[in-house]
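RETRY 2/3 - previous attempt timed out on the joint model. Re-submitting the same 677-residue input unchanged.
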Amino acid sequence: MPTTIIEKIWQQHEIADLGDGTSLIYIDRIFLHERTGSVALKGLEAMGRKVRNPEQVFCTMDHIVDTFPNRSDVTTMPGGTAFIQTTREAAHAAGITVFDLGDRRQGIVHVVSPEQGIALPGVTLVCPDSHTGTLGGLGALAWGIGSTEAEHALATKTLVVRKPKTMRVTFNGTLPQGLTAKDMILRLISEYGASGGIGYAIEFSGTAVEALPVEARLTLCNMTVEFGAWSGLVAPDAATIEYVKGRPYAPRGKEWEQAVTYWQTLKTDPGATFDRDITLECDDIIPQVTWGTSPMHATGIDGRVPDPADEPDPARRAAMERALEYMALEPNRPLAGIPIDAAFIGSCTNSRLSDLRAAADILRGRTVKAGVKAICVPGSGLVKAAAEAEGIDQVFKEAGFEWRESGCSMCFYAGGESFGLEERVISSTNRNFENRQGPRTRTHLASPATVAASAVAGCLTDVRHLD
Amino acid sequence: MEKFTSLTAIAAPLLRMNIDTDVIIPSREMKRVSKEGLSEGMFANWRYTEPGGRIENPDFVLNQEPYRRAQILLSGDNFGCGSSREHAVWALAEWGIRAIITPGFGNIFYSNCVRNGILPVRLPEATVQELADQVTTDPEQHRVTVDLTDCAVTGPDGRRYPFEIAPADREMLLEGLDAIAVTQRRDADILDFQRRDRSIRPWIYLQKTS
Ligand code: SF4
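RETRY 2/3 succeeded.
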């Protein structure tokens, strides 16, 4: 029977069918970070339980560490030191590999994991972090879990998982020049809603997806959680295999040959059916930017702030009204031209080398508008080093951006650094929730190129028409 | 884990869609490496007048009597979307919430509820609205019953609304099971799987290097 790639990976990892649609699933890789991993490791310890296969468990410091130069365990976030040190101690005691402060491999969990070859095509990978689906960009089946489930995975190397429904999202056509995977995923979420993917594992396919470089596929899959989906992936192809080759934890020698042979089988068979099929055309996608407080509140930069009065669904209308109040925007106002106070490039969505290059291409020879606070936070120490080797740090600095150490930084506010009260930020991150980037901070999500262009113009800007 | 069988309680309406876990527990309220002491920070940005402050906002439903004693939350679609932080569930549980009724939940949040003795109930939007309308006329008297033994919610007017929950999740809640202990009984199966899998996918089984 023709099967989907999701089904194939599922079957490969099924230890037992527990009935009623749930299975005991083998987990190949577990990643932790100091924010939620700390609680999971402590919880395990408290119950006297051990990490079953520590050689397949990894940990990084990204959420709470500062991103200022010369940082240490002392953090701007009150109480942050305890998270870092508890995690470090517990991880060492358990025999888990830690990408710690001062290690060039340190960085945002979902940047480090593909960079190190820990995430691979066809693996199951979990992390107590909702953006774990990012690794679907390599063809991994990866999903975010809570701390209690993380304890389960650590202790047993398995999880009890309800089999997801399957959805195929086909992006047809060719993405116009200057448009990105970020624009594609925002377009999808705005069209089908932030709960459109609930209960589904998604395969992204179609010509526009096949044409995406691997880093862009990671961006695409990063925001499957904003679509409500359980997980999302892109089938591995020659580009994926090329990307993985030679990475520190990737297979070598005879095992590499074996792995490649296996990875080549990881595709949906012709004639296999999905529970749901969605198709989007990419030829005329416009750079996306959000206007509200949910990632579904996105539209083309050439558009206007929508009018809640036009929304027939009462729940959606109420959410829109509340969002506009929070964002301090009036209906029908053109999005382009809305003045910004700050610009942020970073996060597990858009902080890889290709993202920084795209932003640098806009910034080269230009400067950030006076009064706009602009910050770039590379996704890992290695991304930072690679960017510096190309002189990209100079481009950012000369344009007026701060150039930081790697980490999650101001993707989210944890009581430390923030953009501040009612500041308006254009951001390459993934969540524009109320207070996400600071108390009453107003976030507009967009691609790194759109963020860079807007930083230069001092307002939300169409990157295609920057002077 | 605390068992859940049946509960008749005050239900608080918080009918907004996409209430995310950042709203339920802002990051800055997760101050310690602990599952405890989180209820004070629950809904902090809505519950208090100032960011980081502790002066109650009287307009927020859970600050009002008798909703301060609510054990059931009625809310909008996609409740608990966003960040995986289990702290959202720990905060709600510590504050006293035992059941949440909405048209839909974020996936991770839903699992987290089941693992912490909170019953997540999915009912259609119109039903949740109907329950909220009835509750608000007299929240103290118009209580809602959530019964996991027969998988039904009973509204203040006596109308019964059956709901669905996966049998494994239901059992975990009814029995207050420790999921890890249950899985550990299958240790032989896991070892067996690893043995077979290692010959098919040897590259998965990393050796300790450092
Ligand atoms: S960069 Fe932001 S979204 Fe990504 S893992 Fe860090 S905090 Fe979460």
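The mean pLDDT of chain A is 96. Closing ticket.
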